[in-house]
Amino acid sequence: MSDTHGRPGPLPAPEDRWLTLPGRKRVLVVVHTVTYGQRLRDVFSLLEGDLRIQLVFTAAPHALGEGTGGFLHELGAAALPWQEAVRTRFDLALAAGSRGIEKVRGPLVRLSHGAGHIKLLRGGRPAPADGRPTGMLSRQYLTRGGRVVPAAIALAHERDLAELARWCPEAVPAAAVVGDPCYDRIVSSLPLRDAYRRALGVGPRQHLVVTTTTWGPSSSFGRFDALLPRLIGELPSDRYRVAVLVHPNVWAGHGGRQIRTWLAGVRARGLALVPPETDWRALLVAADSVIGDHGSLTSYATVAPRVPVLVARFPEDEVHPSSPAAALARTAPALSPLHPLEGQLEYAAAEYRKREYEQVAALISSEPGRFNRRMRTLMYRLLGLGQPAYAPVTEPAAVPPPLDGGTARRTAGPRA
């Protein structure tokens, strides 16, 4: 079907005749992985409640797509098969990944899915004079056949514009600086710190250590066999609780059963393995210390005040030098395998410098507190609709389940 100018028009939607509210503006949410889906939840929630808009979900093919069906099921969302989704024209599409998005019919908004642009584009060591872009800001990820795919590229920080201009200048006109949703949600959650700690089962005199890991061979997950037994063995259980946040891509790549069995020994001794569905932002707000690698969660910890960080692993040649992760690695002390852990936690707390951590956090978003307003404005402009006559509210993170060594209840909290 085409319009009078010969351009492809909307494909028939036979299901409309069964709908109570037909003819709505249709927005496709493209979920490649659980990580991307959780990121997008902060975005599509800005459209929910508007009777003029129908949200449609699809699980796009991805090597780490395990769990996306369960994610959509927990949302209560009816998912359109990918092959059917790419045959249908939509009024707007949202995606945090790049695979297959050139097949989506309709204006697409491409979002980042972490704390700044951390990981450099894969492909070996760069020549010093040339450097390497991060994935989302590269021509490889943003164009197909010489054409910029997204109608809009949502950026968290104004400095990303300069990077985009360097590596894919033809995409600059599509860029919009909107801020970071997780930054704003963490700030909104700060007043609930005591409530989160009670829900987690952390005593008023206990020190909560949250250990985070990203995914991939350079993550700290591969060294957990050395770190986690030390955390459980060296930190007195009456004064410390230890919780581990494992990136959803690790769960998707290896499977939940494998993750739990790998960590069964330390879990039996009191370590809490946080389910991937739990809202990790509540854990960071509740934490007294964070031990992490170059993943986004370690950088997001800088948004919560007075949470010192120990950097467990930092693969310098894989991380963008101007990213929040690189800045944090220059700021926070590095974890030592040769010194007692309790002493290192005390050292990190004593050396905590509020201004330096705030400078790292400032690299995550140049529009603090304004993501909802800016993102909603962008989406409604592309939809050709006036915005609802009320300001969007930044909700705090969901209350987490108790730390009980891995048998926690499931919640539906987003993840970066």
Describe this structure as you would to a colleague:
The chain is α/β, with parallel strands linked by helices. It is 32% helix and 13% strand. It is built from 17 helices and 13 strands. Helix 6 packs across helix 12.
Q: What is the rounded distance between the termini? A: 39 Å
Segments where pLDDT lies below 50 for 5+ residues? 1-14, 124-129, 406-416
List the secondary-structure elements in sequence, H or E: EHEHHEEHEEEHEHHEHEHHHEHEHEHHHH
- Estimate the helix proportion, in percent: 25-40%
List descriptors:
five-stranded parallel beta sheet; single chain; 17 helices; alpha/beta; 416 residues
Question: How is this fold's topology laid out?
Answer:
Blueprint: E1 25-31, H1 34-44, E2 53-59, H2 68-75, H3 82-85, E3 92-95, E4 108-111, H4 139-142, E5 143-144, E6 147-148, E7 152-155, H5 159-167, E8 175-177, H6 181-189, H7 193-200, E9 207-213, H8 224-234, E10 240-246, H9 248-254, H10 256-262, H11 264-268, E11 272-273, H12 280-286, E12 289-292, H13 296-300, E13 309-311, H14 324-331, H15 341-350, H16 354-362, H17 371-383
Parallel strand pairs: 1-2, 1-3, 3-4, 4-7, 7-8, 9-10, 9-12, 10-11, 12-13
Antiparallel strand pairs: 5-6
Helix pairs in contact: 6-12, 7-12, 9-10, 14-16
